[in-house]
Amino acid sequence: MDLTQAREIKAQLTGYARDLAERYGVAVGPQSAATTAPDPVRAPTLAIGLAPAGRSGEFEIAVRYRLGLPAARAVVRRIAAEAGPSPDVRRTGRIRRLGPGRRGSTRDPGLDPQPPVATALAVGETGRVRPLRPGVSLAHVDVTAGTLGAFVVADPACTAVGHLPGGPGALYALSNRHVLDGVPGDGVLQPGPADGGRDPVDRVGAVAAVVPLAAGERAAVDAAVALLDSAEVDPTYPVGPVTTTAEAVPGDTVEKIGRTTGHTHGRVSAVEMDDVLVGYGPELGVLAFDGQIEVESTGTGPFSRGGDSGSLVYRHDATALGLLFAGSETGGPHGTGLTYVNPIGAVVGALGVRLLGAAGQDRTGQDHTGTGERASPSGTNTL
Fold first, then answer.
1. What is 94-383's CATH number?
2. How far apart are CA 349 and CA 317, in angstroms?
3. Which intervals of the chain are annotated as region Disordered (predicted)?
4. Virtual torsion, Cα 342, 294, 27, 75, nearest 10 deg
5. Angle, to 10 degrees, between the axis of helix 70-82 and the axis of helix 3-24?
6. Which has the closest alpha carbon to 207: 234, 232, 188?
7. Residue 314: is its pLDDT beyond 90?
């Protein structure tokens, strides 16, 4: 089916799935930490999106469900029967944010994030790195460890948020809210505390802006920025500088570089995923994210693991597609899970920023590469 038809069917099925879930007694939608369910993150809810079909430009319906409980299977069968001749149906298990939690916080086995993989077992960059570069360990002073995803500057054309601290020419590090979880002015360390970072010797900046998340409310992005103390950075990725952005398309081949699994490759297995329920710990409970990108690994290992939160996901042509924030237990090839990604347009729009080097330079024309050269003029923001 074409994109228009696929979107129409998806919208119909989303409403149908919610009706069926209520009929079968299956919880649908965000749940707060105060829910009476003993393990709310294991509720057998459905997420529905768009997956690539066999031919270019054609789509099929993606259906994801948590557990093989009778109620969940009954809903999945009914949805699959209405989704066309070949829906992409997968069981994901629990979906949780990938990594950081506050040090010393109370643990809840039903809601906890996937903790960052131990420093000694991580294959990414967990040590102290100067100048800063994408993919290194980074976190709030009271969080464990996540990933520095990208360098960004304020976008003068965006008025979605209030004034960012720092003034003209300020440079920011982009990551997830749950990596930089705090209030403006709180310290940010590289490496993160779980990897040995200590305040003040490893402090590289301060929390500047956080997109709010609230228990019981639907969400679109898990994102935040930190104002950096130094503009001396290395903004390159394995594919070079990433300065352009685009919407993800099912079937896109993608990469990321993260604190835990390093440089990995994958494929966009679905887009526009709604009702993706993600466990956020006792404070926020289970949150429902809409409009998300799903990525499956094309290697022998997972595309991401705990501690990769905040990684930028991009194509081989150096075009950014999204910000990695969560992962499932199963559903991917080789017994690995699936990775969930906030669309980059929603991320930069919510924060009022753009990638360093987008449209040729930052708004002041200043060099932030640490090389003495101006940023490359080749990039254009396609969103």
1. 2.40.10.10
2. 22
3. 85-117, 360-383
4. 150
5. 150
6. 188
7. yes
Arithmetic mean of pLDDT over the chain: 85
Residue 78 has pLDDT above 60, yes or no: yes
Tokens of 11: 């919208």
Binned at pLDDT 50, 70 and 90, residue 178 comes out as very high
Q: Using CA atoms, how far apart are residues 16 and 57, in angstroms rounded to an integer? A: 26
Contacts of 293 (CB under 8 A, 6+ apart): 248, 268, 270, 271, 273, 313, 321, 322, 340, 341, 342, 343
What's the pLDDT tens digit per position in 81-106?
999 889 999 989 889 898 666 654 44
DSSP summary character for residue 335:
G
pLDDT score, position 360: 45
- Tell me the C-alpha distance between 352 and 290, whole Å: 20
Q: Where are the beta strands (DSSP E) in 108-261?
A: 137-140, 146-147, 150-154, 172-175, 187-189, 203-210, 224-228, 236-237, 240-241, 244-245, 253-258
Structure tokens at 352: 């009022």
**Amino acid letter, residue 303:** F
Residue 210 has pLDDT above 60, yes or no: yes
Per-residue pLDDT tens digits for 228-271:
999 999 999 999 999 999 999 999 999 999 999 999 999 999 99
Provide CB contacts within 8 A for 135, sequence distance 6+.
124, 125, 147, 148, 237, 257, 258, 259, 262, 263, 311
175 contacts 147 by C-beta, under 8 angstroms? yes
Whether the model clears a pTM of 0.85, i.e. scores above it, the answer is yes
Answer for the pair 289, 237: CB distance below 8 angstroms, yes or no: no
Which pLDDT band holds residue 56 (cuts at 50, 70, 90)? Answer: confident
> Residue 208 corresponds to which amino acid?
A
